[in-house]
Amino acid sequence: MQIIHRISIDSTPEIRRELATMGIVVGASGLVTFEIDEAYEAWPALQSWITRRDAFDLISTKFSKKEITEARWLALEPGWQHGYPQPEDTHIGYRTATYDLTDFCEGCSLGLKQKAPFQMKAEPRWGRRSILQLHWIHDEFFVTPEIWSAIFRPHGIGCRPVLNTKGAELKTVVQLVVQEEVGVKTEGLEAERCTRCGRPKFLPVVRGPFPPLVTEPSSHMAKTREYFGSGGSAFRGILVSQDLARALEAAKVRGASFTPVAEPG
After folding, report:
1. How would you class 150 by CB atoms within 10 Å of its CB: exposed for 0-12, middle for 13-18, buried for 19 or more?
2. Do 83 and 179 belong together in one domain?
3. Has this prediction a pTM greater than 0.85?
């Protein structure tokens, strides 16, 4: 497991000199971005520098193949996002068309319950990929009908159609239906409580594995009961079994990746 920092800052002669003392060479002008593993020998000094310079620091975790294949459960992560839910004139448009807003909070975005099929402008431009997420929708996955039929259906995962803006069913995409919900252990997670509805959500997990589960799902795919996100973003984690993950890997399905779920301590 590697903790990776993607750091961005406006380059100046002074910034370049400071980074050079830590063995980091960046461009001469404009916004520069570089990646550093926390195992880098100068990381402690660089960490202090990031704080002092208020550099933008995007943290992620890179897992080994062994860590992924040995995990019993994995969080399914999007490899790309393609298109926007329709109608996209405003966020209200697609929400009203797709969700029951009875328990929805505009302050934190918790409480959406799907009531109708998602709409897309047109058939996705899949290229060599077979699984995607829409922009703004971080806890639903969409796949080609062929991948659903070959991999997800045999694992007991349902699907629902996706429509275009005229109400016609699209032919090259379906939405995966994830019915089971499971809790995760939230000790140590940083929470954010909405000032309007009072409900909590947790900041996205970017360091290390996904939090351990309270109970093991009975199916091959589940959603967390807990919400993650910050500000106006809220989503639930999507979990898959190792068996389903291996089936996706064997079929060389592109468009998503996996984060190991930690075992309960």
Report:
1. middle
2. yes
3. yes
